Amino acid sequence: MRFWSAVAGVASALAITASAAQAADLYAPPAEYDEVPIRRFSWSGVYGGIHAGGAWGDANLSENLPTLGIFPPSVSSTHDVDGAIGGVHIGVNKQFGNLVFGTELRLSGADISGSTDDCFGLTTATAAVSCNSSVNWMASAMARLGYAWDRWLIYGNVGWAFAGVDHNATLDFSPTPVAVSSGVNDTADGLAYGGGIEFAVTNSVILGVEYTRTELEADGSGLLFGGVATTGSRDINLNEVKARLSFKFGG
């Protein structure tokens, strides 16, 4: 009897231990899983698109005259210009962490113009000298450096721009209907810089807005008297604000 009592006691102890182990398994903490990394948007890749907006600024004209003891050695004039600009762009970005490096080429048509009725301060009671300046096209190559927060990108850029600019001067004699006109067609060039912000609506569609300051210079033959006996320089300083739509390829 003692033997069977001992066996029964051992069996009871084993049963209790098994029940406790089973209960522990039932209430064991869930297995740990590795976190799935969140895939963020990549700004790396080639992109192209269109842009359009407005521009405003000033044209600064300087003319060197043959004095002949009559005229001052040089005269200058300034007038405002404004208008619209729009075109196409293509570029490439490379992202390293949050930093985004890129280059971009742009080609734009422009309708930017302005004039003054007292050009070079030569208007008198009997003669009016007016000047007009028009920017017809612009091309630029820009380097970009930006900081990205997932689908948002803020950036600055700097580069060199070229533009086709027409300048015209007209001398009207009063009260006669006689008028004498002359003009110069410049390919001006200069520094362009600014910055903007972009948002990737989808993995391939990007919207943005940008400000650019462009400082163009040209010199050579003069504007007055057909440039036969004068030389001159002509500067155009523009502030441009453009909306952008880009399509990204690759990554």
What name does CATH use for the topology? Porin
- Helix- and strand-based class? mainly beta
- Strand fraction equals over 45%
What's the total number of strands? 8
Low-confidence stretches: none
| Shape call | elongated
Number of domains: 1
Termini separation: 83 Å
Second-tier CATH architecture? Beta Barrel
Q: Enumerate the strands of the largest sheet in spatial order, edge to edge or round the barrel.
A: 1-2-3-4-5-6-7-8
Mean pLDDT: 86
Number of helices: 1
- How much helical structure, as a percent, in the residues? under 10%
| String of helices and strands | HEEEEEEEE
The largest pleated sheet is described as:
8 strands, antiparallel, barrel
CATH class descriptor name: Mainly Beta
Radius of gyration: 36 Å
Q: What can be said about this structure in brief?
A:
With 251 residues, the chain is mostly beta strands. Helices cover 10% and strands 65% of the residues.
Give a written overview of the molecule.
By secondary structure, the chain is mainly beta. It has one domain: Porin (Beta Barrel). Helix content is 10%, strand content 65%. The chain contains 1 helix and 8 strands, in the order αββββββββ. It has one helix at 2-26, and strands spanning 45-64, 74-96, 99-116, 127-149, 152-173, 179-200, 205-221, 231-249. An 8-stranded antiparallel beta barrel has the order 1-2-3-4-5-6-7-8. A hairpin with a 2-residue loop joins strand 4 and strand 5. It is elongated. The N and C termini lie far apart (83 Å). The mean pLDDT is 86.
